[in-house]
């Protein structure tokens, strides 16, 4: 149980989890949950909590869209304010 456990799938998964937030490739915005891989995302989409969130969103889709749009706008303006200050820049540069 020494060094041979270093490359087991469980050990690799634990190291990845310990790093914290990963690349946001597998992210469910509705539930605000990040998944590590495609399989985890697929399992999340089939989960009961995700289905409940979908039902809530389908009842009032405009409220959810407004919330996400407002969140994006606030974060975008905060990034613009902190990173570029009073300089003029194209939106695409800030967005990318």
From TrEMBL:
Domain DNA/RNA-binding protein Kin17 WH-like: start-end pairs: 52-96
InterPro entries xref list: C2H2-Znf_KIN17 (IPR056767), DNA/RNA-bd_Kin17_WH-like_dom (IPR019447), KIN17-like (IPR037321), KIN17_WH-like_sf (IPR038254), Znf_C2H2_sf (IPR036236)
Source superkingdom: Eukaryota
Protein name: DNA/RNA-binding protein Kin17 WH-like domain-containing protein
One Pfam family of this chain: WH_KIN17
Lineage of source species: Eukaryota, Metazoa, Chordata, Craniata, Vertebrata
Organism: Saguinus oedipus
Regions that span the bilayer: none
